[in-house]
Write a structure and sequence with these properties.
homodimer, about 0% strand, mainly alpha, DNA-binding
Chain lengths: ~220, ~220
DNA sequence: TATGTTAAATTAACGACGTTAACTTAAATT
DNA sequence: AATTTAAGTTAACGTCGTTAATTTAACATA
């Protein structure tokens, strides 16, 4: 039943319907396993109808990634309320890992799949804005820890520190997502691995706890 | 020109020819971008001929992964000669990262793509044998450091420690492979990130350098 | 009120993919 | 010389992402 003109709001609504259906399928089966025809069937349209709203499959993926970047950032934003900045870094890591492990297919799309370099023309996420960008949040907290001089004195580049913390947590999560079922590694529990990574990063990057206590 | 019977050696040779062609294409373009027809053309056979030697595309990927696991392990094996075990851990990390970053498409296949759980029936790699398995090498070294009581006293599970070190290095490498070209992160140099991760793992996991010096 | 115009959808179709089936060729065996 | 059979080939299937051509029905105009 293909009738005619749609208000802008209706077009927007259909766009969202498509994205919701695609997201649900992507999450359940992974990006590659989901076909355009399958997405279309789920929302009761023909496959080609999708192309009236998205240039191609990649555009859908990108749009979903954008939404998920926002979801990740907003999920972490309450953590940013924690007063102590060291506690806040740790909580950010835990929150980030929770997101990664409970939405592995999203996480794979966002951080484990090479995408054409994020085009600011298209992306609606304001990168650098801590409200919308989880990495910006981490950067912010790390800078705060840095200014309180809680990092080891030889560490003079907060951005580098933030990228290292990110890499550590990401390493634990991405190995879990990719290789959790491989039997040739006798994996310790994911909780234990995450915990040790957190402790290692703290111990490895910060000055000793005694010194920390006596700091402003 | 398809004549007839081949000796076992000839069959084996063709198998290797297929694998070499596939590997070269995979490395250049990534697994998904390479087609069976393309592999076949490169070796002067029809696409279907490949199926006489491999069940399907996945079997080729798996066979290549196996070879690459061996290549990784053997590339690291001389590092195992380093006498000081702490130096050896660091060198293993550096060697591992060098492999990952200079063969990113291999690395992606091996450690960033979910595969049906490694079937010991098929795989020719002897997992657990440090000659053939890089993780077993790491495990070995970490155990040695553990026995010298150089890890912080609260760390009582060498396997967990090894998995954390792996995750740290893997995190740096996999983020680099996936997101190096994303502009919204102001990446520090990969060398700096790797260096800081190494130092952080060392500082975070080991007892202090002064104590270390006075240990057996 | 009849007639175009046009947005929103559809069906048809294309070329490429992984893979299977059916067929060919020529060496080895009888 | 006739038969079997391994090692190839070409043809073909079903599916994919995507584009082209076509239909449908609401609106605008005469």
């Amino acid at each position: 039943m293909p009738p005619k003109p749609k208000t802008d709001a209706e077009r927007q609504q259909l766009r969202i319907t498509i994205l919701d259906a695609a997201r649900e399928l992507f999450v359940a089966q992974g990006v590659d396993a989901v076909t355009m025809r399958e997405i279309a069937k789920r929302i009761g349209y023909s496959a080609t109808a999708i192309y009236l709203h998205f240039k191609d499959k990649d555009a859908i993926i990108r749009a979903i990634c954008d939404t998920d970047f926002l979801a990740l950032a907003s999920g972490l934003s309450q953590i940013m309320q924690i007063p102590d900045p060291v506690e806040r870094v740790v909580a950010l890591g835990t929150g980030y890992a929770r997101f990664a492990l409970s939405h592995p297919n999203h996480y794979r799309m966002m951080f484990m799949t090479p995408r054409p370099p994020c085009d600011p023309e298209i992306s609606e996420v304001q990168h650098g804005n801590p409200e919308q960008d989880a990495y910006a949040q981490l950067r912010l907290v790390v800078h705060e820890v840095y200014e309180r001089q809680l990092f080891r004195p030889e560490l003079t580049d907060p951005d580098l520190i933030a990228q290292t913390i990110w890499a550590g947590i990401h390493g634990v999560c991405s190995l879990e997502i990719t290789l959790a079922n491989d039997i040739w590694v006798n994996w310790r529990s994911i909780e234990a691995r995450l915990q040790l990574m957190q402790n290692t990063l703290i111990n490895g990057l910060l000055i000793s706890p005694e010194l920390r206590a006596s700091q402003p």
